[in-house]
């Protein structure tokens, strides 16, 4: 082979590597920006994940945000279903080694080269997101817990996998942290949802306190709604307590994935200070980094 052809091949190889590195870096920046803008607290929590697993965590979290925002960005459930189907197909192609040219799927593909991720958790998240397109008000607290398990807990199972952890104590802790997180997300989103005439807090608890969704749409805050919020928040807090009970038997290497409990706990405490008025909760965003750092240092959630 002539020196010219040898040099040309080296240049082509270097260019391809450079292009691949640039694409990966752009995908990573996309995911980080998405999380900073739409899921700031969990973005900060990922900073406590070891660097080797952090890209995987960003990819999983970004996938969760992308699919969660579908309902917020579309008014037509059929259009929402089309987007869910796109993601379903995109995940299939990613597992087949042919990720679509989308930053999140490309980042997921890169992450799977480092740590295997279970296909089933992605499918479960998408199935739950699709069901949520119809804006169902959850009949019971159990139904809300199931939704939280299928979404938030599934994300935490994936985060454990990015850390290379397969441990049933860690899984149990993640299940309860996820349920607390999913329930807390519904509580936090209530003021926004009410503006759009959407409401998700369980109808069984609403009926117990003689409150209808129309009452909430017309009147906003009320003593009855505070009672409903108290019951739902108590369930979320109970899940945090249960999650902590598993921590002593859970590998400490799982803690970074379980730090998702800290923003939940912070919100529930702020809600209690607001006398369970969902419209008056105030959270100091700047304190979250310290709370997470303190929990990580002490090995608690």
TrEMBL record:
InterPro entries: Isoprenoid_synthase_dom_sf, Squ/phyt_synthse
Catalytic activity: 2 (2E,6E,10E)-geranylgeranyl diphosphate = 15-cis-phytoene + 2 diphosphate
Record key words, sorted: Carotenoid biosynthesis
Enzyme class label: transferase
GO biological process, one term: carotenoid biosynthetic process
EC number(s) from the headed UniProt entry: 2.5.1.32
PANTHER family: BIFUNCTIONAL LYCOPENE CYCLASE/PHYTOENE SYNTHASE (PTHR31480)
Protein name per UniProt: 15-cis-phytoene synthase
Species annotation: Spizellomyces punctatus (strain DAOM BR117)
